[in-house]
Amino acid sequence: MQPSPHTLIGAHTNVYVEAGEQVFDMNLLGQSIRIVASPTEYTFDYGDGTAYGPARVPGGPLPESRWGEQTATSHAYQSTGDFPVTVTTFFSGEYSVNGGPMVPIDGRAQVTSPAQLLSVWRSESRNVADDCLVNPAGVGC
């Protein structure tokens, strides 16, 4: 998440997942088995009762100078608090026996990430006419 572990109310928080193809090689009953699982869709649960997906877009990181921009997978929180953010990745698979052709696997698997706690804060800004030397009791002093 960007920014993390804190963000501001009303600002877009970029949430993304880094998931790649998984390859499993094993022997089963004397046969050489290869299973390939590829991520195909993602569901983003922002922890505040809203979700996005399933979507084919995993999102991606932004340079720090662009934090707060809206992305396909970002979310703008409407209240302060601590929110458990998760992403569920859906995998489709295929298998091969003894080096033969790849055969699609019916159905798909889903893996949910461990929750990442995001604290949503509010901020206040104020204009002041003098500095703390002139007015030691002023805002921000």
Automatic annotation (TrEMBL):
PROSITE patterns (UniProt xref): PKD
Top-level division of the source organism's lineage: Bacteria
Gene3D superfamilies found in the cross-reference section: Immunoglobulins
InterPro entries in the cross-refs: Ig-like_fold, PKD_dom, PKD_dom_sf
Residue ranges constituting the PKD domain according to the UniProt record: 38-88
Protein name: PKD domain-containing protein
Organism the protein comes from: Arthrobacter pullicola
Taxonomic lineage: Bacteria, Bacillati, Actinomycetota, Actinomycetes, Micrococcales
